[in-house]
Amino acid sequence: QVELVESGGGLVQAGGSVSLSCAASGSITSLGAMGWYRQAPGNQRELVASISSSERETYAESVKGRCTISRDNAKNTVDLRMNSLKPADTGGYCCRVRGRTGPGWGTWEDYWGRGTQVTVSS
Length: 122
What we know:
The chain is mostly beta strands. Helices cover 0% and strands 57% of the residues.
């Protein structure tokens, strides 16, 4: 089985920072792209940031300059650092990992974490 566990969410003041971490555990043998998504009430889920297996980074326009995504393949983790937080950043943040649990010829699947709440107060 595969499990993704996010941590680091909480209540922060506007202008502050949060560091989110997602750790994949279980039977994953290979990691592809990893990313963070968020969803606020009344909004669709959106991609905040993603990072490919070659560490190419992609960011949503709304967080560019304030967000950094990183990965540690040895630890099977993907982290998200957000600075200069705004109330609009409030939402549930979920980690997504594309992984493979079998040998090299196995299929790739997407795994999702349970999410962690980030609330930014003004």
